[in-house]
């Protein structure tokens, strides 16, 4: 994990007088599972949208897979996968139709789409549901399908925005198994979450408080730094420090 695939320097986004992300600086390495943690409204989604080329920064610098977020957004989009906070597939299409549709968008050939469809459907255990409308599936299956489609084209980086929100603990664990598998194939995973226990699943994490990056390290090192037994305790200390102006 020596190759840097995401690099930011004082990346900032303002909406009028409101500073959504304030001069955030960090690096993410190839094949890493990088957690971007914080409470709702901490600036996580705004930062991710800038990194995906969906939102222009107000100031600062950033490169994704070697491409500049200001000048090369189209190249960025070709090298990443993205799963939004809201379910991102078409509920009025079947499972197989969604895979075919997005495979075409990603530029895969018909033969590649057919091959990947069979593998994906089998891996997710959706053989009996392949011809069903996605809207009829339980939320957990929808989320796992959306993630699998987001990496159908084997991107260098996949961005996941609150991917396990609203699903049960068992499904959350299954979803993280998919993340581990993707990282094992060399895909860098950048994941936002407000579930502090999920920080334990990441190689490194950053912690956002009110648009400011307050910490960046491995979960183990952060717990040692704050003499904490859990990431919830670490976040509590960071949030309390922010209130005191530290």
TrEMBL record:
Residue ranges of domain ABC transporter in the record: 6-235
A single GO molecular function term of this UniProt record: ATP hydrolysis activity
SUPFAM superfamilies referenced in this protein's UniProt entry, alphabetically: P-loop containing nucleoside triphosphate hydrolases
InterPro entries membership: AAA+_ATPase (IPR003593), ABC_transporter-like_ATP-bd (IPR003439), P-loop_NTPase (IPR027417)
Superkingdom of the source species: Bacteria
CDD domains reported for this sequence: ABC_subfamily_A
Keywords attached to this entry: ATP-binding, Nucleotide-binding
The protein's name: ATP-binding cassette domain-containing protein
Organism from which the protein derives: Salmonirosea aquatica
């Amino acid at each position: 994990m020596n190759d840097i695939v995401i690099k930011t320097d004082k990346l900032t986004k303002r909406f009028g007088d409101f500073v959504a992300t304030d001069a955030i600086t960090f690096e993410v390495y190839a094949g890493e599972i990088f957690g971007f943690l914080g409470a709702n409204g901490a600036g996580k989604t705004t930062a991710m949208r800038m990194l995906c080329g969906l939102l222009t920064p107000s100031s600062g610098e950033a490169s994704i897979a070697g491409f500049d977020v200001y000048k090369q957004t189209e190249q960025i989009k070709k090298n990443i996968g993205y799963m939004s906070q809201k379910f991102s597939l078409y509920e009025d299409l079947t499972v197989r139709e969604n895979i075919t549709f997005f495979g075409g968008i990603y530029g895969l050939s018909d033969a590649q789409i057919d091959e990947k469809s069979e593998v994906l459907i089998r891996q997710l255990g959706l053989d009996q549901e392949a011809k069903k409308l996605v809207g009829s599936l339980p939320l957990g299956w929808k989320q796992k399908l959306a993630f699998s489609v987001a990496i159908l084209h084997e991107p260098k980086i996949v961005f996941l925005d609150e991917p396990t929100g609203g699903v049960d603990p068992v499904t959350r664990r299954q979803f993280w198994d998919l993340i581990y598998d993707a990282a094992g194939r060399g895909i860098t995973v950048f994941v936002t979450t407000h579930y502090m226990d999920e920080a334990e699943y990441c190689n490194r994490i950053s912690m956002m408080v009110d648009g400011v990056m307050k910490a960046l390290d491995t979960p183990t090192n952060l717990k040692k730094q704050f003499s904490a037994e859990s990431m919830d305790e670490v976040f509590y200390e960071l949030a309390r420090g922010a209130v005191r102006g530290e």
